[in-house]
């Protein structure tokens, strides 16, 4: 039997898509959180649903305006998973209840370590992260970056948190926004391609159910083949692309359409928007 992952008391402030995805990993049977997990969100209805999870104390801001402070007080790890524009006010709200040695983890796209460290007391460690939604099924990828006050031990603990929902890539903070345009936004790109591929299959006479099976299994199989193979994606693509064959003809059309340029422009646009979201709101 695998050794359980043991983590200290955790608070998740904001349980939307990202906070909720991380929570799914933390409540798995093989994860032990000493002192439990306290989560916050806006509505009573959602709070009541999350309270049914094992080891979770769920607080609704609609019932308790001090819920974020109550959750953060005494937690060894505090994950800040609210919308980027809400982060500064939230940090000011909880700053005085954070115990020395607390690790505060940013899960807010585009918000820098410097923003956190400027507002939070010096006895608090800050680590910035960018997980993605496949974390819900344990197939996530989280980029993590150390802050100026975080130790190797702090980073190791945060890595353990995110490894409950997938893989972890440690990168300098200067790369984290770019990482978010690939792994953070990336699932949406894949879903968009699946949508279009499915429409194409239906247009060729398959029923929606048949098209769903054809396309989803093709994407799943290709991804599993890539992960299990010692070949690169390019090598596997060439292996499938017989000279003068049907796949070669299709790839030529995609190349002529400027797919490489399109992906570059799309991720550049996502990066620019990430930086816009992180910019301070004029007072």
TrEMBL record:
Its main location: cytoplasm. One of its GO terms (molecular function) is pyrroline-5-carboxylate reductase activity. Pathway: Amino-acid biosynthesis; L-proline biosynthesis; L-proline from L-glutamate 5-semialdehyde: step 1/1. Keywords: Amino-acid biosynthesis, Cytoplasm, NADP, Oxidoreductase, Proline biosynthesis. NADP(+) binds at residues 13-18, 81-84. GO terms for biological process: L-proline biosynthetic process. Belongs to the pyrroline-5-carboxylate reductase family. PANTHER family: PYRROLINE-5-CARBOXYLATE REDUCTASE, PYRROLINE-5-CARBOXYLATE REDUCTASE 3. This is Pyrroline-5-carboxylate reductase.
């Amino acid at each position: 039997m695998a050794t359980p992952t043991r983590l200290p008391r955790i608070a998740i402030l904001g349980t939307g898509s990202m906070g909720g995805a991380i929570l799914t990993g933390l409540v798995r049977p093989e994860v032990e959180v000493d002192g439990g997990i306290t989560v916050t969100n806006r509505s009573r209805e959602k709070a009541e649903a999350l309270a049914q999870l094992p080891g979770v104390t769920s607080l609704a801001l609609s019932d308790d305006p001090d819920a974020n402070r109550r959750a953060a007080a005494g937690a060894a790890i505090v994950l800040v998973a609210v919308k980027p524009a809400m982060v500064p006010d939230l940090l000011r709200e909880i700053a005085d209840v954070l115990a020395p040695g607390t690790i505060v983890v940013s899960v807010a796209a585009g918000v820098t370590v410097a923003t956190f460290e400027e507002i939070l007391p010096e006895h608090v460690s800050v680590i910035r992260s960018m997980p993605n939604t496949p974390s819900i099924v344990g197939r996530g990828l989280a980029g993590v970056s150390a802050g100026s006050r975080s130790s190797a031990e702090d980073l190791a603990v945060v890595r353990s948190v995110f490894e409950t929902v997938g893989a972890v890539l440690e990168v300098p903070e200067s790369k984290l926004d770019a990482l978010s345009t690939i792994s953070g936004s990336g699932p949406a790109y894949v879903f968009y391609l699946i949508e279009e591929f499915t429409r194409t299959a239906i247009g060729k006479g398959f029923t929606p159910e048949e098209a769903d099976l054809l396309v989803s299994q093709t994407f799943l199989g290709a991804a599993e083949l890539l992960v299990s193979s010692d070949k690169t994606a390019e090598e596997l693509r060439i292996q499938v692309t017989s000279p003068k064959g049907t796949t070669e003809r299709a790839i030529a059309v995609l190349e002529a359409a400027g797919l490489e340029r399109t992906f570059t422009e799309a991720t550049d646009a996502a990066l620019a928007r990430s930086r816009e979201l992180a910019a301070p709101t004029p007072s």
